[in-house]
Request: fold
Amino acid sequence: MKEPIYKRVLLKISGEALSGGTGFGINSDVLHDISLGIKELNDVGVEVAVVVGGGNFWRGRTSQGMDRTTADYIGMLATVMNAMALQDSLEDVGVPTRVQTGIEMRQVAEPYIRRRAVRHLEKGRVVIFGAGTGNPYFSTDTAAALRAAEMEADVILLAKNVDAVYDKDPKVHDDAKKFTNLTYMEVINRELKVMDSTATSLCMDNKITIKVFELSTENIIKVVYGENIGTTVE
Reply:
């Protein structure tokens, strides 16, 4: 029987992907599909940590006229809503789950403590990280890179609403070029929309492989079992 090639993974889910293509809110079918994929990995012993974005509720960079720090904190709260929804969906399919947040809100989640998060993973619990890094001016991409480094994850699974990395938006340009493999420096120099430059640099410094693919249970399983889909950045 084929074995997973990764022992511990960090799954980054964009807020837009959670909306199911509508751009706003949470699509329950998408949430359930993600939960089944995570459950399948959890059942075979793969340790899964998750970072969720908040773009399906709030995008700080589009809040014109608002103080940047305030806008970023609102975005962090949006990620916590997504984290709680994912936790509920995971526990509905029988997956033990903990939410940890970069901003303390003890009534709904644990505060982020690295050693506690690692222990949860070792005990077979899925850990969902909400509220980004807990600091303004840092994206959830950077939070994913940071948590992956802290958790010593083997790979970042970057699940998006597009199937790979392209040189321009494939939904707008028919001649968009698809990349199968990229280096960190190519991503930074070409200004490709994989992760922001801070997150990409952090992955490069810590030699964390990034797999970019379209969000679905099938794709999550394929990547963890070593199938070459989407784009690999290393």
Q: What stands out?
A: The longest strand covers residues 8-13.
